[in-house]
Amino acid sequence: MSDGPGGAPVVAAIRSRDPISQAGVTAQLASTAPDDTGPPVVVVTEQDVTPHVLVIVGDTVDDWLLAQLDALAGGAGPAPRPVLVVGHLDDTAGLRAVEAGGLSLVRRSESTAPLLREVVRSAARGEARLPPDLLSSLLTQVGRTQRDVLAPRGLTILSLSPRQLAVLRMIAAGADVATIARELSYSERSIKHIVHEITTRLGVRNRTQAVAHAIRAGLI
């Protein structure tokens, strides 16, 4: 259920009540760009093969969309990982989706082809992805979600890698760059790069803000 070594294709299917929306998302995923170095995304119908990722397109996080997530969670055998492309997505809707297992969310207005392909690839790898502004506003509410929903699935709402989390926890403990590099057997330059990755992913300006976000999310 993940993209394989050497850039093996990610298989995705699209589910929507609106044929026009389904066609648009299909076209985005099928498009390519010269600077796109990620594994290709192959769009199939659900009847053909069980996909790695199921992209569910809706106007909002309504009963229909939540029912699709429930069906995935309750199905027999390995289920595709969901990516939600939603027209209206506020804090309440985002939290409902996350609690139902919709751990990768994209607003339709922000759904460019490169972004959607990257979110689909991330979902295939088991990573959760949320819009940065939604992530920021939800962090004060998701300590319980992190413990009860994501942690049992081996995921984090912050979409940080184990290496990034290790660095962030050492920063929270007061370690400087030199100490972190020595303890984790990395160069200081590598640690600075990891810190930059963390702040970029969280949409914050410095390490202090990154630690505060992680504390509110229940990771530290």
Question: Descriptors for this entry?
Answer:
globular; Arc Repressor Mutant, subunit A; 5-stranded parallel beta sheet; 47% helix; alpha/beta; 220 residues; 10 helices
Could you characterize the architecture of this molecule?
With 220 residues, the protein is α/β, with parallel strands linked by helices. The chain folds into 2 domains: 10-153, Response regulator (Rossmann fold, 3-Layer(aba) Sandwich), CATH 3.40.50; 162-216, Arc Repressor Mutant, subunit A. Helix content is 47%, strand content 12%. It has a 5-stranded parallel β-sheet, with helices on both faces. Helix 1 (19-30) links the parallel strand 1 (10-16) and strand 2 (41-44). Helix 1 (19-30) crosses helix 4 (113-124), helix 7 crosses helix 10 (207-216) and helix 9 crosses helix 10 (207-216). It starts with 9 loop residues before the first strand and ends with a helix.
At a glance:
Keywords: DNA-binding, Transcription, Transcription regulation. Residues 153-218 form the HTH luxR-type domain. Helix content is 47%, strand content 12%.
What is the CATH top level name of the largest domain?
Answer: Alpha Beta
**SS elements, strand count:** 5
Low-confidence runs (pLDDT<50, min 5 residues)? 1-6
Domains, number:
2
CATH architecture of the largest domain: 3-Layer(aba) Sandwich
Largest sheet: 5 strands, parallel
